[in-house]
């Protein structure tokens, strides 16, 4: 039996068009919290057993006996726009790899779905359309997407099938790749589904998108049941509400053998989300109110109170270096408290130069020019040093090897600070332990993350609070200076409409 030949590739970026820094080619070469850019045969080995879509797809494809043609896979930390040079270099190499692959039976792409480049608003739609032009109308193209994808009609049109993660924190990235492989198998088996695509009329703040909380617990929990009634696949994408272009926002996409079934499934799911519009909400504290509330709860608790420093989430385009929450911890006199990660390569290098035990002045963080934020001038003691290598063992990173560059634990009063040189979202307890902080032993932990930290920290948290210190990812998307959303789109649940 001749086996199917499937090309695999990946190009992932979540773009906050209001973020402080763009993603150039080097950001993809390095990968940030992701595996480094890899091309050709090494792709399979270097992404194996990592919690990413292509890893799950490859595992399932190998089990099915398909012959894989690896082209290029890369991802960068969320940030402002992908530069034109980076986009064209990477897209060009993926297309060249596929053009040179010879006869193929299908293509799988590991995509995010919320990439905006300097010259292209719809990064994935443009990539998929170029690919479709290259291979013609009949070669199956299947792509997995992030739950935060801002899906466009152009993406849906160019791909045979799109399938999105169903968890936030994204513990099912590899699982979604496996689902993409089963959809590819369905297509290779001769079932060519038709599509239904609907966009929802309001943006959803990421802090209230967690799938462990309502309403998403029920909405996502019900997808498999919706699929069971004659659908090939149905996905709900929450959207990434910090991309200023017409297709920003949540969407539903369904695939079925006939149009009526696909349309009905998409309409029903949209109605279910719309009925929950008011439920995408929660309490947001100012930095000092949040720290005081955490101290009050911690006084009686045996487990840490965890605070999300949500507006500087590097997973949403922040630089992970704002100082508002650190200032609040110190101003309120918090003790047995830790905060991470503050990315400041100069401070990390200075700590390494001074050595453990030294007390010296730092002008810490606050370098990204975020309005309302500034470097924090403080006297700290260097408590521990690290070369930045760690294995993130929690369920979100899923065993990923991280390289945060020179890193240190700085202490001031009862507060300890994880300082590193490269950014990655604080979503794993090992990101405290690698500089000698035992997260379980703290009364208060402040994590620069919006939701992904919940996967590894909910099990040890007394409670979780959300705080809004000045940062580039507002907890309320309606406060962003959007100018290019589609008219009528509500900029938050029950919020004001886009002009
Ligand atoms: Zn995401």
Automatic annotation (TrEMBL):
Any one biological process term the GO annotation gives: proteolysis
Chain ranges passing through the membrane: none
Keyword set includes Hydrolase: yes
Superkingdom of origin: Bacteria
Domain Microcystin LR degradation protein MlrC N-terminal: 5-295
Co-factor binding details: Binds 1 zinc ion per subunit.
Cofactor(s) the record lists: Zn(2+)
Domain Microcystin LR degradation protein MlrC C-terminal positions: 307-484
DNA-binding keyword on record: no
Keywords in alphabetical order: Hydrolase, Metal-binding, Metalloprotease, Protease
One function term, GO molecular function aspect: metal ion binding
Family that this chain belongs to: Belongs to the peptidase M81 family.
Protein name per Swiss-Prot or TrEMBL: Microcystinase C
Species name: Aureimonas glaciei
